Amino acid sequence: MNSISYSDISPKGTYVAIVSRGRLFVSPAKSDRWVEITRKSGIRVKDVHFIDDKSIAALSDEGGEYEIWKVNADGSGDAKQLTKGSKVIISSFAVSPNGKYIAYNDKNDVLRIAEAATGDIKFEYKDSYAGINELSWSPNSTFLDISQNLENLTVQVNVIDTRSMKMIPVTTSRLSSYSPAWAADGKWLYFLSDRNLHSVVTSPWGPRQPEPYYTKTTNIYAMALDTAAKFPFLQTDSWLTDSVFTTVDKQGVTKTKTVSKKKPSVQPAMVYNWATAQKSLYQVPVKSANIAGLAIANGFLYWLDMGIEGDDDGGKIFALKITESKKPTPTEVASGVSGFNVSANGKKLLINYSNKNLAVADADGSKVDADKAKVELNNWSFAINPPEDWQEMFNDAWRMMRDYFYDRDMHKVDWAAVKKQYEPLLPRVTDRYELDDLLSQMVGELSALHTFVYGGDKRTSQDKIQTGVLGAKLSKSDAGFKIEHIYDSDPDYSFSSPLAKPELRIKEGDVVTAINNVPLKDVNNVGELLANKVNIPVKLTLTDRAKKSYEQVVKPFSARDEYNLRYGEWEYSRRLKVDSASNNDIGYVHLKAMGGDDMDDFVKQFYPIFNRKGLILDVRENFGGNIDSWVLEKLMRKAWMYWQGRTGGPTWNMQYAFRGHMVILCDQQTASDGEAITEGFRRLGLGKVIGMRTWGGEIWLSSDNRMVDNGIASAAEMGVFGPEGKWLIEGRGVEPDMEVDNLPYETYKGKDAQLEAALKYLQQQIKEHPIEKVVSPKFPDKSFKYQQ
């Protein structure tokens, strides 16, 4: 089930289609009889959509390039190619409900609408900025809806009228709007929009410079497309009553006529005046949330609330009846959800759960029983032909590199010739590891870093034994293992060696003589007795320096934990050295990477020392990420005014601005975003760069170009250049202002020449350009004397 990449539900909700490893399967929604539609190895199906209950549109590379094909849902007959002439990968597509049109966009951000019967292009639009996110159709197939990224980084809903083949923006460009969904009668266009812009942080005062933070920004909106339409959730004012008109006919008979103000007596014809519609906007009365999808089914609004950012447990589907109500109350339909689809007739839901299960349920607004509605997959299996799969993966990796790589000219490399050069080696490939080796050689021809080959279906042992470790350096002795050194850690935080817990009496120099009563005298490796003992209590028998025996119970941790502990000790020892050598005038911050967790590390390290006279930002060994802008923004803050109250010392604005001198340390292992922050540090005038030339990889990537088995030969997708119009860092790295190398033998002896150079430089700067203590001026004398 982990290999299901796409799924869809038929218009009547009676069939489910899934794609796994590029193969297409269909089953009745309430059966476990799966039929393979593709029945071919060596091709890949990427995306599927039911055209009707008997046929499916599938994005397939069967013809050498990705095109959209029509296949019978029962697997009979031959596939029919619907689109033609594609030169780059099709990213997504949508078939109109009447089956007449296919809309699709490609990796060059070109949107097309083609006639399904002929494949002829009827509309073509080249996006000039950042691409199109979503494609969907109105129920009557008249309008194609798209969500388009704009140059100001908002998202706008547009519609394309298939009668005129013109594109019309229907939401503002000032706020992001997306996930359009049409009411069945065509009178309302619902969509999501991020308009609840109320920061949960309301003041810059407090620890760590609190900043505005916006969450649960999304609301559901409805746009009236019929000028006479009444918003379904709008309550009728109870003071408004039906009007009674009295008339007298020719015979003198009095008649009464009642005209309701709740509904017009005659429904006017539909008029699509988009300029007017944009002003007829209503907010659906539900709470703002972090909403990821919207649909309409069977008279209900359905949406996916993803909860709190960073929560990996999946979202919740909610439903709300589209009707007048004094207190509209959504119903929770399902939880632990990653996505959902609605059948074209609006009667069924296909739910994708985060645990990879699928379910088909009635779209009646009620709670779904996940077990009863579950799509049965236990009897679903299929065989693969590895050599044919490897051929397809080779072709796909080559093709995706061509269409994802940031430079369409492929660094002037003849990419077609590269394929011809390496493809003859495919028959020699005997396993998935060798395929990776071949792909690595091929993509290496582009001379671009951030091109990594990894992942995929590889045969690995089912027995995964984790050996526990004790978080210490041990040496063999006659009696067992002597504790030479217990790895140190920052005492401000709880992560420490299993031997350094405060309740233990273990000291360096003690000897471990037995583990769980097994003597260590004749044991060559302590790991022999710690296999499968990670986080499991074990009894150690030890002797101290006075030769007295004692026992302690400890919990070994993993080798990964010990790596982090040893790295942390190196980091902690640098900090102590800087504090000692500078008499606490200079602060030290180390970032080993540039991810979210590393921002946490920056916060822990920077704010306690923000008021020092100097700062060493150490990004040596930093393997990258994407938070350079966060860190640089903090370091760029300037103190431009000061506050002085009745008591205490002065504080400054901008809060937590660093007023002292700064340097950044880098080395040959500083990579990716570690290099970006190094280059940015210098370009923004924050200070000198000290160390060695960096790795030289600065074309960013998304890692979206996955192969059929989820392996990847990652494409470098976003090149980096400076205001002067030159490409930065890639292939060369960042050159330091002061080149200082840490030579191996000196490093082995404990010397850190780069850190010492940074300390010496900053101490000199502080001496020559002192950072004066902020002293408030005398308070103003505003006294005066009254004239007598």
From TrEMBL:
One of its GO terms (biological process) is proteolysis. The keyword Protease applies. Its main location: cytoplasm. Pfam families: PDZ_Tricorn, Peptidase_S41, Tricorn_2nd, Tricorn_C1. GO terms for cellular component: cytoplasm. InterPro entries: ClpP/crotonase-like_dom_sf, PDZ_sf, Tail-specific_protease, Tricorn_C1, Tricorn_PDZ, Tricorn_protease, WD40/YVTN_repeat-like_dom_sf. It is found in: Cytoplasm. The keyword Nucleotidyltransferase does not apply. Residues 535-741 form the Tail specific protease domain. Belongs to the peptidase S41B family. This is Protease. It comes from Mucilaginibacter gilvus.
